Amino acid sequence: MAFDGVWKVEKSENYDKFMEIMGINIVKRKLGAHDNLKLTIKQEGNKFTIQENSNFRNIEIVFTLGVNFDYSLADGTELNGTWDMKGTQLVGSFTRKDNGKKLDALREIVGDEMIQTYTYEGVIAKRFFKKA
Length: 132
Fold this sequence. Notes:
globular, single chain, mainly beta, Lipocalin, long-chain fatty acid binding, about 10% helix
């Protein structure tokens, strides 16, 4: 249950390039870089409930480890995929519905941070969260 809690984004690495390769226009990329994303994560066994709050939207995501589900990014990109637990890491494997390309995500706790890593088309970006 290490992921349980409220996590606020502190900084990002290569996030603009990641958004660009995802096809997000420059205006949305500039806004996305300052989204003030906050994640409230609650784990109950294999079930996760995540409240995602940002300057652009507030949504609740509920998923069960290993079970496919649909998800839309803040820019409207629709995905289908799963989150799985591998050791102490949450590993996400998603496919874009519009072009069939793969988006990988990884959440891990390192010290007092949660690091979220995205990989798409060979571009790797990281977002660093601190517990609020």
